[in-house]
Amino acid sequence: PETDSGVSGLLFGSVAQSDAIDPFLDSLLGKDGDEHVRLRKLIQPAFTHRVMQSWKDMAEKVADKLIYDLQKAEGPLEIVSKFANPLPIAMICEILGVPESDREKFIEWGNVLGQLGLDGPRNPEEKKLLEDSSAEITNYIAELLEVRRVTPGEDLLSVLASAEHDGSTLTN
């Protein structure tokens, strides 16, 4: 089957087939040889020490906001559902540059991929939910990449959208 070697395929795999529910099968992790090296050279600038240091600062801001929200909450303190669970997906949204207006849906997809994608679906309904969520997040990332190619920001997708090495890009 034809695979997507763009960033959405790199991050979340190809979901063109109805049975392609493992979002990591067609990712960088599953590539070997020349294709793995090509993709690694393209994404390497997105993971410099300076960039990753900025993620540390960002993590502190995200954590501070979640803690601030916890302080405003009434009733018993539920740290897992109000802090530990939202922190990683909030960081992913920040790093990728997902706009605030899209985060609720992105979090839904991420939760499905995290819960069903790692353990595998146990029934046809879960399989369908995983397929749909994988396709939706892949399409969303592809659309956001197109936006970032035209109007780049300072996020990971902007860096990846403009990545080029020896004439190679993440779309070819």
Plain-language structure description:
With about 170 residues, the chain is mainly α. It is built from eight helices and two strands, in the order H-H-H-H-H-H-H-H-E-E. The protein is about 65% helix and about 0% strand. The chain has a two-stranded antiparallel ribbon with strand order 1-2.
| Class from secondary-structure proportions | mainly alpha
State the share of residues found in helices, binned by percent: 55-70%
Assembly form of the protein: single chain
> Uncertain regions: pLDDT < 50 for 5+ in a row?
1-19
Element-level helix/strand string: HHHHHHHHEE
Morphology: globular
Q: What is the first-to-last residue Cα distance?
A: 17 Å
In short:
Helix content is 63%, strand content 2%.
